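Lab notebook, bench 4. Still working through the backlog of constructs that have no structural model yet. Next entry is a single chain of 201 residues. Request: give me the structure tokens for it.
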Amino acid sequence: MMPAARESLLDAAYAALARRPWAAVRMVDVAAAAGVSRQTLYNEFGSKEGLARALVRREADGYLAGVERALGSQAEPRERLTATAEWMALAARENVLVRAMLTGCWSERLPSPTLSAVPSSSAVPAQRRADGPLPSPGDFVHIVRDRAVAVLSEAGAGKGNGELARSCELVVRLALSCVSAPPGEGGVAELVRGAFYRQPV
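Model written out:
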């Protein structure tokens, strides 16, 4: 199957999830919305669980791509971290699957695939990847922290790696706290900048 068709199926599944609980999403409806046969859908994902894993994997990848963009969007290290924290909070607010992945809180409306790898006999490379382990909330903290450290080290952030790692992890955890308890006026950016006012990154 062409990657575009796979994306169309995942788009259709995400759109269906916005309208009804995952338990009520039917494979035949997802296939019809994407303009393919139900057999094509099963050939690509294997099962509804396979579709769920692929959907979660795609949203995780999109979230991490957004982190990369945010880390590269500013010149100053502190502003890079601020942009990253803002992206984390925005992505979780706008995407229920990202929110569930970051918090570990999967409502009954959502698919909740097991995070460990599942046996895969798929001939589709993208599905084999989706069948691999999915990131836990703790994994996301470490992935984002490590990417921030790598980017800021290259940019000459001026801290030792241990101190830089602590600062980056603090920002990530601060942003995650804003997902669970949204801040008031000034938002995430003001919190992050305030946290580093006396200890510039």
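Notes after review: The radius of gyration is 19 Å. The chain has a mean pLDDT of 90. Flag for follow-up if needed.
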